[in-house]
Amino acid sequence: MRCCHCKKREGIYEISDFVGEQALVMVCDECLDYVLVGLESCPTCGYRKEDYERTGLMGCADCYRAFLPLTMRETLRLQEKTEHKGKKPEEGNFDLVEERSLLKERIEECIRLRKFAKAHELSKRLDEINRLIGDKEDE
Amino acid sequence: MMELSETVVLSTRVRLARNFAAYPFPHRLFDEAVARTVIRTVYDALSGLDDFTLYRLAETDDETIKRLLENNLISPALLSHKSIAAAIVNAEETVSVMVNEEDHLREQCILPGSNVWGCYELLSGIDDEISKSAVLAYDEHFGYLTACPTNIGTGLRCSLMLFLPALTKNGLIPSLKEKMSRLGMVLRGAHGEGSEASGFLYQLSIEVTLGVSEMKILSEVNNVALKIIQFEGEERQNLFAADSLSLQDSALRAFGILTHCVLLSYEEMISLMADLKLGVALGIVKGDVPALEDLSGAMLDTNLVMREGKPLTERELKTKRAHYVKSALQDIIG
């Protein structure tokens, strides 16, 4: 996919459009800074970008949004991906389709290790998920 | 004969990094009243779940701090914030929450054997309880926010303590390290680079925290562990087929020294214990690898001091260790 900013070079970073509705866009290396504009210091804690360069640590939770280009660059460098998947604080649980496919793996493992009581317990959870989400496809 | 996996994966550790949304991260937390609030909130949230003990590091004696460190219940990094730091530990010492380390909370669970799911279930319950008492730093896009961007997303790290004598002796560790690295995992000597030769102990951990769910991460670690267990098992058979007499000699020689010596340093014990554990794993000597591993942990300096209830000199530590190991091995080794 072409870079969404220069429309010339090939986009190498897959990022979400923070301004809009989280649509997926591609950006090339040269345009990354132009696409995302960040602040020099965090309005919440006063931490500066150069403080991060010096310590490798953010000052507070709000720094991540204040220094968005830096955040994006660092997450791409350190993590390769930029979008969280998994647990959320208010939910305390997981995507049920994913949990179902992993439960199947765990049940097989328990049977292989002859831990039948645990396999039975996990099967009950599997039945419960099947009832909740029906025949939705696994990932 | 023991289950192979029990003789390869000695313990599992899972940790979650969390922060309070309202306060600066610990390296910028200069208000001690706020730090105390964080500690109190977490301790109150956990008190209803289990019998937890709170250690405020500024008020904890050096001997206890050393014991918490040696038993991996706290990290050296926690000590750098000693005035605001605390550890909250359950009665079995399987779960600990470090408060005001690099992040406000480092929740961790260590269980024996290969048990990523057990660790995570226990930890996730604790994490849910803390989430009810505080607004955690979380972003819809980046997930849980941590002081260092290497931990954002799930904030999860999972690691296994592995006993790999055959892969080490057969020179296969470098290629295994390379394979693990391609899978986004790191295999290193359990006590730092270069430490593997003494105890054949390694730590396998996964680095990714963003863009992959907790379940997926744990499942990957589990699947890789199964392959390593099989690989080590095959190499143990090869080792045995090539020179069973030498293995028998090393295991029995180690047993002989451990049950007859009078002075025993921790380093010497670890090295001898490795030969004995391999002998047990191969069925040369009847015994129990996890029990030998527990014994090794119990023979750390600080655990011996706690057992004796008084400070011990270097020489006393060595004599006590030799004495305890001798008597424990008579029960463990059949």
Search tags:
heterodimer; A: 139 residues; mainly alpha; two-stranded antiparallel ribbon; 6 helices; 45% helix; B: 334 residues; alpha+beta; 8-stranded antiparallel sheet; 10 strands; 51% helix
Question: Would you give an account of this structure?
Answer:
- The complex is a heterodimer of chains A (139) and B (334).
- Chain A has 139 residues and is mostly helical.
- Chain A folds into two domains: 67 residues, no CATH class; 48 residues.
- Chain A is 45% helix and 6% strand.
- In chain A, helix 5 packs antiparallel against helix 6.
- The longest helix of chain A is centred in the C-terminal third of the chain and has 18 residues.
- Chain A is elongated and about 55 Å long.
- Chain A starts with 12 loop residues before the first strand and ends in a 6-residue tail after the last helix.
- In chain A, 21% of the residues are buried.
- With 334 residues, chain B is an alpha+beta fold.
- Chain B has a domain of 94 residues.
- Chain B is built from 13 helices and ten strands.
- In chain B, the strands form two sheets. In chain B, strands 2-3-4-5-1-8-10-9 form an eight-stranded antiparallel sheet.
- The two termini of chain B are 12 Å apart.
- In chain B, 45% of the residues are buried.
- Classes of the chains: A mainly alpha (139), B alpha+beta (334).
Summary?
The complex is a heterodimer of chains A (139) and B (334). Chain A is mainly α. Chain A has helices at residues 32-35, 49-55, 63-66, 68-79, 96-112, 116-133, and strands spanning 13-16, 24-27.
Helices and strands, with pairings:
The complex is a heterodimer of chains A (139) and B (334).
Chain A (H helix, E strand, L loop, with lengths): L12 E4 L7 E4 L4 H4 L13 H7 L7 H4 L1 H12 L16 H17 L3 H18 L6
Antiparallel strand pairs in A: 1-2
Chain B lengths: L3 H5 E10 L13 H16 L4 E5 L5 H9 L5 H4 L6 E5 L4 E5 L5 E8 L3 H18 L4 E2 L3 E2 L11 E8 L1 H5 L3 H10 L2 E5 L6 H4 L1 E6 L7 H47 L5 H16 L7 H10 L2 H8 L5 H19 L2
Antiparallel strand pairs in B: 1-5, 1-8, 2-3, 3-4, 4-5, 6-7, 8-10, 9-10
Helix pairs in contact in B: 2-5, 3-12, 9-10, 9-13, 10-11
